[in-house]
Amino acid sequence: SDxxxxxxxxxxxxxxxxxxxxxxxxxxxxxxxxxxxxxxACDGRVPGFAVTWVLTWLVHSMSSQNQIARVFDYxxxxxxxxxxxxxxxxxxxxxxxxx
Length: 99
Prior knowledge:
Layout: H1 2-8, H2 14-20, H3 23-30, H4 32-41, H5 48-56, H6 65-77, H7 82-98
């Protein structure tokens, strides 16, 4: 857990912003058109919607304690950048549902 604290809770938020800066790269591999839309809407800055997803491990929008426990188990065992991959997956999933 110390790795997560160092990478997401540094005094300037630089580590978190660096991780979030990779969002466009990952998103462009998963869905090029969605990546262009989000990048244009955010003027190339870090998308605000992804900040809460990565910092709270997506659990701020979950109501089931069982789901929250599973997400925490996964992220504690996974690589520290796993929340970013999950944010991209959720973005692509929501796009598919809207079409």
